[in-house]
Amino acid sequence: MLTVQRTADGGPEVLHLMETDDEQPGPGEVALDVAATAVNRADLLQRQGHYPPPPGVTEVIGLECSGTVAAVGEGVTDWKVGDEACALLAGGGYASRVVCPVGQLMPLPPGTDLVTAAALPETACTVWSNVFMVAGLQAGDIFLVHGGAGGIGTMAIQVAAAAGARVITTAGSAEKLALCRELGAAVTIDYHEQDFVEEVKAATDGHGADVILDNMGAKYLGRNVSALATEGRLVVIGMQGGSRGELDLGKLLVKRGAVIATSLRGRPADEKARICASVAEHVWPLVGAGEVRPIIERTMPLTDVVAAHELMESGAHSGKIVLTL
Ligand SMILES: NC(=O)c1ccc[n+]([C@@H]2O[C@H](COP(=O)([O-])OP(=O)(O)OC[C@H]3O[C@@H](n4cnc5c(N)ncnc54)[C@H](OP(=O)(O)O)[C@@H]3O)[C@@H](O)[C@H]2O)c1
Prior knowledge:
Blueprint: E1 2-6, E2 15-19, E3 29-39, H1 41-48, E4 64-72, E5 84-88, E6 97-101, E7 105-106, H2 114-117, H3 121-134, E8 142-145, H4 151-162, E9 166-171, H5 174-183, E10 187-190, H6 196-203, E11 209-214, H7 218-227, E12 228-236, H8 249-255, E13 258-261, H9 269-282, H10 284-288, E14 296-301, H11 305-314, E15 320-324
Parallel strand pairs: 8-9, 8-11, 9-10, 11-12, 12-13, 14-15
Antiparallel strand pairs: 1-2, 3-4, 3-6, 3-15, 4-5, 5-7
Helix pairs in contact: 3-4, 3-9, 6-7
Keywords: NADP, Oxidoreductase
Protein name: NAD(P)H-quinone oxidoreductase
InterPro entries: ADH-like_C, ADH-like_N, ER, GroES-like_sf, NAD(P)-bd_dom_sf, Quinone_OxRdtase_PIG3
């Protein structure tokens, strides 16, 4: 099979296509012939050597894919050879074949083709598990998501708006702020020019955000706590602004607030299966109804993986970058 191998820790140029032996599914696993995969920010960290795969997981990068079932392992009864699916992966998506636990397979969302479906598993599972299953966002809540024009952000805005929340988001350019409004954000904040704490307070009559989905970590910790509503939940999923910050517990205590930090990749297979089933039940119908639109900046062949990583690293993209086989 064709795989993208990392020949060293480093920049996009360390990625090379190579032939390796086909993977075979074990009990409870499925092999997919990959049609498409997509780039995630975590892939850049793994390439640089800062985000190794969990124990037992392939070194091949790639957290999501779509494809056709090529073989099923012992005990798999729900899927058969030839079925089309998309999958949440702990690794291995940058390849022509991947093996994963059967619980991480999902049907294609209604109305999507294989290429589009590759752009959805990682963002849908991250947003749904954190914003809804962990933080319990409800209709009528105020939801702040940082980086609204990115892969995670474009999904988060749409799913939260469809659920009846009032969405506030940050982004780094006028063009990206316009995209966020088009996707359903009621209030948009330019993170280069505006203070998001002041803007959130002004837009909510001082109430603040009931749920915050944060990609910045340490850099925004204090300000996120300031922007939280009473009993608000801050969910940190990224550390683009560092991992060590200062938390004013007094401020959090007065608000009876919560700070939660989570990672999807390292969760056990049964938890991922629960998340995938919940996404297929709750998010895929929104895609089918057109309430959640896959936002794809560019679709490129897997052979252009170096250029795809350069594009994500530049920060010029909105939404997802898809790689086809
Ligand atoms: N914990 C988990 O399980 C999990 C799972 C998936 C993703 N993540 C994390 O989620 C984050 C987004 O991932 P992605 O794949 O969607 O990457 P992405 O498409 O590259 O998005 C990165 C986002 O960061 C935004 N950003 C950069 N500087 C910012 C600032 N100062 N303030 C606010 N936003 C800023 C960018 O905004 P502009 O483009 O507008 O500049 C962009 O929207 C990453 O940190 C990733 O590691 C975590």
